[in-house]
Specification:
Layout (H helix, E strand, L loop, with lengths): L2 E10 L4 H21 L6 E6 L3 E10 L5 E9 L12 H10 L7 E5 L2 E10 L4 H14 L7 E3 L3 E3 L3 E8 L2 E2 L3 E2 L2 E4 L1 E3 L6 E3 L6 H7 L6 H14 L11 H10 L3 E7 L9 H12 L2 E5 L2 E11 L4 H27 L3 H7 L4 E3 L3 E2 H18 L4 H10 L7 H4 L9 H9 L4 H8 L15 H20 L13 H15 L5 H6 L6 H21 L5 H7 L7 H14 L5 H14 L16 H20 L3 H21 L7 H21 L7
Parallel strand pairs: 9-12
Antiparallel strand pairs: 1-3, 1-9, 2-3, 4-6, 5-6, 7-8, 9-10, 11-12, 13-14, 15-17, 16-17, 18-19
Helix pairs in contact: 1-3, 5-6, 7-8, 10-11, 10-15, 11-14, 13-14, 14-15, 15-16, 15-18, 16-18, 19-20, 21-23, 21-24, 22-23, 22-24
């Protein structure tokens, strides 16, 4: 079978980085599915993306899809013929659709009834024809947040300038919006036109003209250039998210090093970092874990480096002067003055102000501090002043909104507050995201927990939406962060007692907050650590106020479920749990026990109960006790009839099983584990 390389690429004006990140994996998945669904063979699919161009190369693509057979199902046989056994319109319509004569129709069983059927042979199409039919629609469906109309013809994120669609060395006709395919594209910044000779030569030809279309090559080039700058003790390693951003920003990256006046180093390091990155995409360098006045950025190869550096310096100096002005103005105000202003700033409409929020943070934080044998005054003071930066000039600037909490810590430090208080305030929002750092101090952990539980409490009190894109306040993120902080610091607390400190919640809302946290634990442990959701649901069936105890039970039950004896044990336990009837209770009296097997089961249950209550959090001992109980349960079911005519005896036997079932449900609901 003849094979060829196929190139598809669209050239656009600059697409924002976050939009590229959002859609590149979607594009990859769409293309892979398109090939898979249509049985199009290929050796490999190479994808590429920059700020201006995206596409793929199908290496050694099959000329045509293989011939295949397709099952075509029609109406039930009962309506395919009339009373005289003549074909009806239903059958003739099916045959017309399938492209066959009525005599060729078959009838196969489906769901216990015969249906019209035909195994249709379909001749494979040319691969490129299939792709040509689907690519324009696929491109139009890419989930960019904000598309725009250009000249009334393009409804896309940015104007499309060129489309490459080449099979081997032949241009294949294709139109994406109003742009027709060709074999020409443009270099970086659209400075020159390039003619692509063959699809398989695209990457090499682009590199020869100063465009690295493959992301990993751009990142490797940046790393290599950074390495060449080392040797002076500077830390020049880039975080991967920033490296990726800079690699997308430039198609032929060149590292540019520069500096700013040393006198700006009296500003907090976080302000310097944010100023340089948010405005210029420059990264400050550190030495001996201290920020320096040196920076690096990445620009396009071939630009006037002196001119670029001069322009960067002008903008950088202006922004740093602004930052210093804001910061110094904030330092003129005492923390108590700033805290007083919180009385006029709303935390949530229909709930209250930031001053009220600070009061509840203090209540929650003190409760936690006492449980952990810490000085409650440190937490109380940290909570009281934790929101002062929300009325500062720095945080009011969009550039520095990510520094909430951090700046409050600086203001308290400048005012002479204790180190523990400043650290707690600085760390109060951690973790701030999926890969965010966790608090470093126990005081920071307590204030972080207080912030997160308060946010969850207020959102449930106000009945705010907390699912999907409607979770604009990050309540789900707060619940997961709450769990992560508990786990990191091994904090065992009674969350029910903690919620009781939040007096504006009613009992139903407290239960909703608890269930909400458990649901986030369920999602996290299943998606990240691969724990079966059934195992999690079974372990969480009986509310466990200590979330770390719940975590331990989940992992222990997961391990127990892999025990060779678990499968049979689970069946036995389900037989017990099936006896329980919702809303119905059975009284049990030992005097009503008649058969030896039921007496033995009761004795074993008492021993089982003693073992479980004495095991505490040692779940291995609990599973062992269940395994010991199983033979007596099996013996009971083998030798004792539960549903006898004597109502007292019958209900007493159900009562015995109910005792066992209730005890099991306090451990886990084995009934829901399939």
């Amino acid at each position: 079978m003849a094979v060829n390389n196929l190139l598809f690429s669209i050239l656009t004006e600059d697409i924002p980085f976050d939009e590229i990140l959002r859609t590149r994996n979607v594009f990859r998945n769409m293309i892979e599915k398109l090939f898979s669904d249509n049985y199009i063979e290929k050796e490999d699919l190479k994808f590429f993306a920059t700020r201006n161009r995206s596409g793929f190369i199908a290496m050694d693509m099959g000329e045509k899809q293989p011939d295949y057979r397709e099952e075509v199902w029609g109406p039930p046989k009962a309506i395919c013929f009339d009373g005289a056994e003549e074909p009806t319109k239903a059958l003739s319509g099916f045959c017309k659709k399938a492209g066959i004569d009525i005599g060729e129709a078959e009838f196969h069983d489906k769901g216990g009834k015969p249906y019209a059927f035909f195994n249709k042979s379909i001749k494979g199409e040319r691969s490129v024809d299939i792709l040509s039919r689907h690519l324009p629609e696929l491109i139009s469906r890419l989930p960019y947040k904000k598309k725009m109309n250009f000249d009334g013809k393009q409804n896309y994120i940015r104007p499309i300038r060129r489309v490459l669609y080449i099979l081997g060395d032949q241009v294949i006709p294709l139109k994406i919006f109003d742009v027709c395919s060709s074999n020409t594209t443009l270099t970086a910044h659209f400075s020159r036109e390039i003619k692509i000779d063959k699809a398989g030569d695209f990457i090499g030809q682009m590199e020869g003209n100063g465009v690295l279309v493959e992301l990993y090559k751009r990142k490797d080039l940046i790393r290599k250039q950074l390495s060449a700058l080392s040797g002076n003790g500077m830390n020049i390693e880039l975080e991967d998210d920033k490296l990726t951003y800079l690699a997308f920003l430039n198609e032929n990256p060149r590292v540019l090093a520069g500096s700013f006046p040393e006198n700006f180093l009296d500003l907090p390091a976080e302000i310097i970092d944010q100023t340089l990155w948010k405005h210029q995409k420059c990264v400050t360098l550190t030495k001996d874990n201290k920020v320096t006045n040196s920076y690096i950025t990445v620009v396009e190869e071939g630009c006037d480096l002196e001119k670029v550096e001069a322009n960067y310096s002008d903008v950088m100096l202006s922004r740093l002067y602004d930052a210093r002005f804001f910061f110094n103005n904030d330092l003129k105000h005492k923390p108590d003055q700033m805290q007083k202003k919180l009385e006029h700033v709303v935390y949530f409409n229909d709930w209250g102000t930031l001053a009220r929020a600070s009061e509840y943070l203090a209540i929650i934080g003190e409760h936690l501090a006492r449980k952990l044998d810490l000085d409650p005054k440190i937490i109380r003071d940290a909570a009281h002043y934790s929101k002062i930066d929300l009325v500062s000039e720095i945080i009011s600037e969009k550039t520095y909104t990510d520094l909430q909490g951090i700046m409050a810590g600086y203001y308290l430090k400048e005012a002479g507050f204790a180190k523990g208080i400043c650290a707690a305030v600085s760390q109060q929002y951690l973790p701030a995201g999926e890969n965010s750092a966790l608090p470093e101090t126990i005081e920071g952990a307590i204030l972080s927990l207080s912030n997160k539980i308060l946010l969850m409490a207020v959102s449930h009190f106000l009945n705010l939406p907390v699912t999907g894109s409607k979770d604009i306040y990050g309540v789900r993120r707060a619940a997961l962060g709450f769990y992560k902080v508990l786990s990191e610091f091994n904090i065992h607390i009674d969350i029910s007692a903690l919620l009781n400190r939040i007096d504006f919640l009613n009992e139903m809302q407290k239960n909703q907050v608890y269930s909400f946290i458990v649901e986030r634990i369920r999602a996290f442990e299943s998606e990240v650590h691969g724990i079966s959701r059934e195992i999690i649901d079974a372990a969480a069936y009986s509310p466990e106020p200590d979330l770390l105890m719940l975590k331990k039970k989940i992992y222990s039950l997961e391990k127990f479920s892999k025990n060779p004896a678990f499968s049979d044990t689970k069946i036995t336990l389900k037989r017990v749990l099936n006896i329980l009837e919702k809303g119905k209770t059975f009284e049990f009296q030992e005097d009503f026990l008649i058969e030896d097997a039921e007496k033995q089961l009761f004795d074993e249950f008492l021993l089982f109960k003693e073992k479980v209550e004495g095991a505490g959090a040692d779940f291995d001992r609990i599973w062992s006790a269940i395994l010991d109980l199983k033979p007596e349960i099996d013996n009971f079911f083998d030798k004792v009839m539960v549903n006898v005519e004597d109502e007292k005896i019958k209900n007493n036997r159900k009562g015995l099983l109910a005792l066992i079932g209730d005890m099991l449900l306090k451990i886990a609901n084995f009934k829901i584990i399939s």
